[in-house]
Amino acid sequence: xxxxxxxxxxxxxxxxxxxxxxxxxxxxxxxxxAEDHRVGGTCVIRGCVPKKLLVYAAQFSDxxxxxxxxxxxxxxxxxxxxxxxxNVANEVTRLEGLYGQTLANNKVTLFAERAxxxxxxxxxxxxxxxxxxxxxxxxxxxxxxxxxxxxxxHALTSNExxxxxxxxxxxLIAGGGYIANEFSGVFCALGSDVTVINRGxxxxxxxxxxxxxxxxxxxxxxxxxxxxHTEIQSIEKLADASLRVHLTSGDPIDVDSVLVAAGRxxxxxxxxxxxxxxxxxxxGAVIVDDQWQTSVDSIFAVGDVTDRVQLTPVxxxxxHAFADNRFGGKNIRVDYSNIPSAVFSNPPIGAVGLTExxxxxxxxxxxxxxxxxxxxxxxxxxxxxxxxxxxxxxGATDKVVGLHMIGPExxxxxxxxxxxxxxxxTKADFDAxxxxxxxxAEELVLMK
Length: 448
Known about the structure:
The chain is of the alpha/beta class. It is 30% helix and 23% strand. The strands form five sheets. Strands 1, 2, 3, 4, 5, 6 and 16 form a seven-stranded mixed β-sheet that branches. It has a five-stranded antiparallel β-sheet with strand order 17-18-21-20-19, sandwiched between helices.
């Protein structure tokens, strides 16, 4: 008889956990996975996938406005939030089914309930049942952080934004990161009055400052109000169900909805990790080595729960490598350098490599090349919005060490360009490439 019920038990059926389960099963491991919400995790159920669908919907606002210049009569166009909301929910359900099918096809046992660690080789399910496993993988991801203030129960997080009963006429968004800027762009385009507050003095920390400033300029021109150096002090629900938000500076603001986008924290509460001997950092993240092993030999962790890089593709890559190494006899390491990222703001941002500030901090011979231009479509319809592409080059080697873009389709263009940065290509390599004209992407090989 086998020593354990399963070779691998995974807690959390998000992108990283599902990938790890499939790969481990392909190596012959007996795998189980527990999920107390819905299979698919943050990205599929309440994150990047449904949010990207809202972004597409928001883009139609600009497209419909511009259509008249291209000969289209769209005078009868209207928008219905309920239709969008329900269609997005249906698509999420479809994708959830596909993830569940992946588990079933790979003979992975699914426990649709909460799980925690009782001992280094024992998982306790919410039903009270205990299951043994040779290896346990924590893949529970992250969770929105809401600061402690009076009336916080009236605030929403990104988890709830896809289920609003109606489109808010006025919305206040607290935060300066990618979630805040993505949702502010969406709701502004769909017709809401949007106010963004941030406790700091800039948006999108971690992104190149010049690119972030361009987004701030464009967002302000679109009608989004930004208030810096301020936080929510309290939220008061009024008789008409609207919300009065008291701030640490300035006058109160009356709105219909409040979104708190103050970052995400590792989802480790109640998992029994510390009790099992698993070391956590000061923020509750699981501490792992380069093989994703924790301080307990039989327990591993991948994805946002480790708070290394909070990106779905990173969790997938980690889950895949973990399973290959643990059950396939391989020795794979994940390279965390030059990971591309995007902000699906309006307009979107794509970035890979070092920012200008980071390159200077590293003492490189920094050379900057830019292209500041108006896309052909914008010029045709009389839209003054300008795209900005920025290349960071190490002058000592001519190597491109960073590439940052804001403008239409920037994430789509950046993915291919990220290959060049990852490969260590030089500015001369970019210059030697003939431009694809007419396109926005051609600016990558024309920067001065």
